[in-house]
What we know:
The protein has 97 residues and is an all-alpha fold. It has one domain (4-96): Chorismate mutase (Chorismate Mutase Domain, subunit A, Up-down Bundle), CATH 1.20.59. It contains 4 helices and no strands. The protein has helices at residues 10-38, 45-49, 51-67, 72-96. Helix 1 (10-38) packs across helix 4 (72-96) and helix 3 (51-67) runs antiparallel to helix 4. It is elongated, with a radius of gyration of 17 Å. The protein starts with 9 loop residues before the first helix and ends with a helix.
Amino acid sequence: MKTPAECVSLDEVRAEIDRIDRAIVKLIGERAAYVHAAARFKTSEAAVAAPERQHAMLRDRRAWAEEADLDPDVIEKLYRNLVAYFIVRETEHWKTL
């Protein structure tokens, strides 16, 4: 692992970006397992979507983005897409319980 300042070539920068992206994908997979587990505790299909939870979660992610000096609109869009995907998967799983 190299810091951005330690990279001496574009290939090294790209290798570090790939390393980080691999970790992000692995963490999304870990998140998916928890989403799957959450379905066991939902009492209705409406509870799966949990719009009030989504609103609070997005507000938190926006704040975290600001703390990380990232564009909160971009982070919100990313999470909206991620959550939409997981709601479909969790709903499918919930229906099998």
